[in-house]
Specification:
The complex is a heterotrimer of chains A (255), B (383) and C (473). By secondary structure, chain A is of the alpha/beta class. Chain A has helices at residues 43-51, 75-81, 98-108, 118-131, 149-163, 179-192, 208-211, 232-240, 243-251, and strands at residues 3-12, 18-27, 32-36, 56-65, 68-69, 83-86, 167-171, 198-202, 216-221, 224-229. Chain A starts with a strand and ends with a helix. Chain B has a domain at 1-198. Chain B is 25% helix and 39% strand. Chain B is built from nine helices and 17 strands. Chain B has helices at residues 3-12, 18-30, 40-49, 72-78, 80-86, 98-105, 331-339, 344-360, 366-379, and strands at residues 68-71, 111-115, 125-131, 135-142, 147-156, 163-170, 175-180, 188-197, 202-209, 214-223, 229-238, 243-252, 258-267, 272-281, 288-298, 304-313, 318-328. In chain B, the strands form two sheets. Chain B has a nine-stranded mixed beta sheet with strand order 1-2-4-6-8-10-12-14-16. In chain B, strands 3-5-7-9-11-13-15-17 form an eight-stranded parallel beta sheet, with helices on one face. In chain B, helix 7 packs across helix 8 (344-360). Chain C is of the alpha/beta class and 473 residues long. Chain C is built from 13 helices and 20 strands. In chain C, helix 1 packs across helix 2 and helix 3 (38-47) runs antiparallel to helix 4 (52-67). Classes of the chains: A alpha/beta (255), B alpha/beta (383), C alpha/beta (473). The B-C interface holds B 267, 283, 286, 298-328 and C 375, 385, 387-390, 392-417.
């Protein structure tokens, strides 16, 4: 399932400010891509726009997933298409149990609307919790309520593992995690890697990419993808920082 | 209608512009028909028993090129249109209650301040004067896109209950920082600060209620223009047998308006401090926000009060919340401080400061912040 | 009584009291039971065969009622015509409506909720009787063996006059408000529970078990006494919509919890939108006693209800957990709670969740008061409201008043619409907007539903589910 983003422009609805200034990006099936870049340059906006976050509005360009238009679908339908966005600041939903929600979400994204049998569901859930080394009671707690930053991120990965999306987009899943947690989360992501699975990871630091080796790395500056390369591009950035892109930003150059 | 009253007002307003004479007399005539309540009655009675109708004759101190500052009666002559339209009409409505009407009828003085459009003043305008009569009124008009800081410190000298009224009218995108710390002499007093705000204007009020006398305070703004915001921060202390009733209200009318109220008060001895905060979001005021926080710290078993935050919400595309608490100093904290060598009183003072400081620290002006902290210590009996 | 006997009773009455025997004038009042006079009050008492002391209470209350006015706050009650109500119901007065007259909406709700067919007829007012005798008989036997008294209040007046006399109208005085006065004058039906010292009623006592036509009505009077170290859980009402031909329900509930006793009183009401539900519910908790109100107001035209707990003994505790759902333009839910701290080391908690949509109004009116004796007491109030669309509105009017300094009182409230962030998050995981809204609403009221007996929680789930259908947009 290939994700194709073509010349995507998007603005913040409330202020009219343009954040995405012509993003071009392709993530072929079975590949893991990483997007890096300085803060405030549109990475989060890009993935939120792909998922349909109401605060942003697309002004031109297109996004297709395996040939099918994404932008004209509701948020719900994008999920049913097989897209999953692990958020940077997941919402807290009081009174709703984690396990009940995961079950309902799973059933919602099942092909041909067949609910997952209870035993199968519980077995899968236990296996996922164990892999992510999460405490047993995490699923009985209310959805993200009172979860620490790290717990919230792991809960996003737990949901990803249960919902089995075709394309998993993870927005700074590495922020707020210590080294051990990072390794565990990376394990969860790697566990999903099959020829039918694609992932788009927004990272701030390079460290996650040591554990989840990307097939391609893109750099986003000032609302555009300004450079793409292989995994070695990540090393380069780790060493040299984003300084050289400052100039590119000023010139408004992109690949 | 009280004939004697009318005659007093006629005499007092002699020589003033015709429109003002008429307005004051009308207020005196309509007095009996207007609403009143238990708080107003003692003041109304005191004023009518021994009316103080002297008018201050002083000159305004320092008028710069950038703005106008005049004694209110002088302004009535020099800017009749502006005053006629705005004096006790848009913000403190003279027809709203008996006390407002009598305040207008018995007007002793005050200031008129007018900041024209597009004026940014780097130094604060100081409304600092001594009020010998008991009904002083400040009318402040800030033009579109202007930025100004106003510091009001009026000392009411009269033994008669005083009513200090201040009206703040903000034009489009005007920004006003208003600090207030008035002091009184009489046993019972009234203070009203009311504002009317046009689109995208911003009003920040910092009120320091440290006076030792009984006070009824009324802070109110009308967020009429779209995008207007108001932020009220107040700190109060009540000691001995003092009674303070603090009423604060923000009305959200326009779209995207934002009203925040934060009030922290400390009560001691047998004093009473009551916080009433109201946030009303009218229908159509989409995407507006209203937040109130009222907190009372009681230092003695006999001190007490009320904290009633009210939300009246007519539109659903909003975010509103309020929090209120009444409580004592944390005994664990007291113990901890004492175990490090402080006396009980020193520990209490430290914790009281700790309660009010977070609010005071949000006052943007460094000098005023320091002044307030000094006032606080003095008031607590330390300096 | 047969029609013939009724006629004879009325004739006899009119002959005794009216010299000139103007039957024509008098008959309409008694046969239709509309309007309230002192005579009506006497007749009610007479028909119940009440002792003199109860008649006196009724009459004093009636005179009090005549002196009082409607409340000067809250919803508009001007359309409620107290003189047009039927104060005197007999079994033959209950006109059952035919099933075909029951509104489609109601039938669909029952269907969606899975309400058993037999219950549907009763709830819809299509039959006056509910066949629960068998269930009730077994329960009666079980309770009696523990000394727990559970019956309707009319019977209690006859069988346990000493207990009733000791407590009746001592907590809610007729002069409290006009509806309390009215109720005290014309009350009929209601629940009476007495739990002896040290006895714990393990299973919740449900009002359904003692319902029959005679005892449901507009002016139920409930009296619960939980003796020292005893405990009871009482549940009344149901989530399914109940059709009532009466437009006013002004019940009075008095609960007495003695030292170290425990009482939880759960009510769920979903009246049809013609009903004014104006109830006075009050409890008093003695030393170290605990009183819990769990209140669900799902439907009515106007509800005014402020259950209160007077924390009279040291260490007493009062809690109120309530939800109010104002669904529709005519609906005005004005609810809240009052916690009055009158002794040291008392504590109270109020958690109130309101939802309004389609033009409904839900207002919270609460009071927390701590008087000079309430040293060391604490109170915590949380009231949250979700206004689902822009036709609806909500006011939160709390009164927090303390008379001394060594206490702790906290209050928090939030008003907003259904959070867009939350909706987006849930939808991004595959839920439709409607499913996501339902989930958020169920999560919102979860603190309430988890305190309900299982069957009620399930019913409530289904009800909200159904009410939310087609509500999105």
């Amino acid at each position: 399932m290939t994700l194709v983003v073509k010349n995507l422009h998007a603005i913040v609805k409330e202020t009219g400010e343009e954040i995405l200034k012509g993003v071009d990006l392709t993530v072929p099936t079975g590949e893991v891509h990483a997007i890096m870049g300085p803060n405030g340059n549109g990475k989060s906006t890009l993935v939120s726009t792909i998922m349909g976050y109401p605060a942003y509005e697309v002004t031109s360009g297109s996004v297709t997933f395996d040939g099918e238009d994404v932008l004209n679908k509701s948020v719900t339908d994008r999920a049913k298409m097989g897209l999953f966005l692990g958020m940077q600041y997941p919402a807290e939903i009081p009174g709703v149990k984690n396990v009940d929600f995961i079950r309902q979400a799973m059933n919602a994204t099942q092909p041909d609307d067949q609910p997952v049998p209870v035993m199968q569901f519980l077995q899968e859930l236990d296996a996922a919790k164990e892999l992510l080394q999460m405490p047993d009671d995490i699923t009985d707690r209310y959805l993200n309520v009172g979860f620490s930053g790290g717990e919230k991120k792991r809960n996003e990965v737990l949901q990803m593992m249960m919902l089995k999306p075709k394309l998993a987009i993870l927005d700074e899943i590495d922020s707020g995690l210590d080294i051990d947690a990072l390794r565990i989360v990376a394990n969860g992501i790697n566990h999903m890697r099959t020829p039918q699975f694609s992932a788009l990871l927004i990272t701030h630091y390079e460290r996650l990419l040591e554990y989840v080796k990307p097939d391609r790395v893109h750099v986003m500056v000032d609302g555009r993808v300004v450079q793409s390369g292989g995994p070695e591009l990540a090393d380069e950035l780790e060493k040299g920082g984003y300084a050289k892109f400052e100039q590119l930003r000023k010139d408004g150059v992109h690949e | 209608m009280n004939q004697k009253l009318l005659e007093l007002v006629q005499t007092a307003s002699q020589g003033q512009p015709a429109w003002l004479q008429k307005k004051r007399q009308l207020a005196a005539m309509m007095l009996g028909d207007l609403p009143t309540d238990q708080w107003q009655t003692p003041l109304l009675n005191a004023w009518q028993a021994t009316p103080t109708l002297t008018v201050e004759n002083e000159q305004a101190n320092g008028q710069s090129q950038d703005y106008v500052e005049l004694p209110i009666f002088v302004a009535a002559e020099q800017y009749p249109e502006l005053l006629q339209e705005n004096l006790m009409e848009k913000a403190i409505d003279w027809q709203a209650s008996q006390i407002n009407a009598l305040h207008l009828a018995f007007l002793n003085g005050g200031r008129f301040i007018y900041v024209p459009d597009n004026t940014e003043l780097s130094t604060p305008i100081e409304l600092q004067y001594s009020a010998t009569g008991c009904n002083y009124h400040n009318l402040v008009i800030v033009g579109a896109n202007s930025k100004v800081t106003i510091v009001e410190h009026v000392t009411a000298q009269s033994n008669q209950p005083s009513f200090l009224g201040t009206e703040l009218l903000l034009g489009d995108t005007a920004q006003v920082n208003y600090y207030q710390t008035n002091s009184f002499t009489a046993n019972q007093n009234w203070q009203a600060v009311r504002s009317y705000q046009a689109g995208d204007s911003q009003l920040n009020i910092y009120a320091v209620l440290f006076d030792r006398h009984n006070l009824f305070a009324d802070f109110h703004t009308n967020l009429d223009g779209d995008g207007s915001t108001a932020d009220f921060k107040m700190v109060g202390i009540a000691t001995h047998d003092q009674l303070q009733e603090i009423n604060t209200r923000i009305d959200n009318h326009g779209l995207h308006t934002n009203g925040e109220i934060l009030q922290n008060g400390v009560v001691k001895d047998q004093a009473i401090l009551n916080f009433h905060a109201v946030g009303k979001i009218y229908k159509g005021s989409h995407q507006s926000v209203s937040n109130q926080e009222s907190r009372l710290l009681t230092l003695t078993p006999a001190s007490h009060g009320e904290a009633d935050p009210v939300l009246l919400i007519e539109d659903n595309d909003v975010n509103a919340g309020h929090a209120a608490s009444i409580g004592q100093v944390n005994p664990d904290q007291l113990y901890y401080l004492q175990s490090r060598g402080l006396t009980l009183m020193e520990a209490e003072i430290l914790l009281t400061k700790g309660f009010l400081l977070p609010v005071i620290e949000k006052f943007p002006d460094q000098t005023l912040r320091q002044q307030t902290i000094d006032e606080l210590l003095k008031r607590l009996g330390v300096q | 009584m047969s029609q013939e006997e009724d006629k004879r009773a009325i004739q006899k009455f009119s002959q005794e009291h009216y010299e000139y025997g103007f039957h024509d004038d008098i008959q309409p009042i008694f046969s239709t039971g509309v309007g309230l006079t002192e005579e009506t009050v006497r007749e009610i008492s007479r028909r119940k065969n009440e002792p003199e002391w109860m008649l006196k209470i009724r009459l004093d209350a009636y005179h009090q009622y005549r002196k009082m006015k409607l409340p000067d706050f809250g919803p508009d009650l001007t359309k409620l015509d107290l003189d047009q109500l039927r104060y005197f119901q007999r079994p033959t007065d209950h006109v059952a409506r035919s099933w075909s007259d029951v509104p489609e909406e109601m039938k669909t709700t029952f269907e969606k909720m899975g309400v058993p067919k037999a219950e549907r007829q009763y709830l819809a007012g299509a039959t006056a009787q509910y066949e629960s005798e068998v269930v009730y008989a077994n329960l009666k036997r079980d309770l009696a063996s523990h000394g727990i008294i559970f019956m309707d209040t009319d019977t209690a007046v006859q069988k346990y006059p000493e207990i009733v006399k000791k407590y009746f109208a001592t907590l809610v005085h007729p002069n409290d408000n006009i509806f309390a006065a009215l109720n005290t004058a014309v009350w009929s039906g209601g629940t009476f529970i007495y739990v002896p010292k040290g006895v714990h009623a393990d299973e919740p006592l449900q009002s359904f078990f003692r319902i029959n036509a005679e005892n449901t009505g507009q002016f139920e009077r409930t009296l619960i006494v939980v003796d020292e170290d005893a405990s009871v859980n009482y549940v009344e009402g149901c989530t399914a919509p109940v059709y009532s031909e009466d437009s006013l329900h002004a019940a009075v509930v008095e609960v007495f919890v003695k030292p170290r006793g425990f009482c939880r009183y759960t009510t769920i009401q979903n009246w049809s939108p013609n009903v004014y539900s104006l109830e006075t519910k009050r409890a008093v908790a003695d030393e170290n006693a605990v009183m819990e109100w769990v209140d669900g107001n799902l439907g009515s035209k106007v509800t005014m209800k402020y259950p209160s707990v007077y924390l009279r003994g040291r260490g007493a505790k009062g809690t109120m957990l309530s939800i109010a759902f104002a669904n529709g333009k005519v609906v005005d839910q004005d609810t809240g709670a009052r916690m009055i701290h009158q002794a040291p080391d008392t504590s109270s908690t109020i958690i109130s969740k309101s939802l309004c949509r389609a033009g409904g109004v839900c207002d919270y009116r609460g009071e927390v008061k701590m008087d000079e004796n309430a040293h060391g007491s604490s109170s915590h109030v949380e009231c949250d409201t979700i206004i689902m669309d822009d036709d609806s509105s909500s006011d939160t009017i709390p009164l927090n008043k303390v008379a001394i300094g060594d206490v702790a009182m906290e209050h928090e409230a939030k008003v907003s619409k259904v959070s867009e962030e939350e909706l987006y998050y849930l939808m991004s995981r595959g839920l439709t907007e409607e499913e996501a809204t339902k989930m958020i609403v169920m999560g919102f009221i979860e603190p309430f539903t988890k305190q309900l007996p299982m069957e009620y929680a399930v019913e409530l789930n289904r009800l909200i589910d159904f009410q939310m259908e087609g509500s999105v947009g």
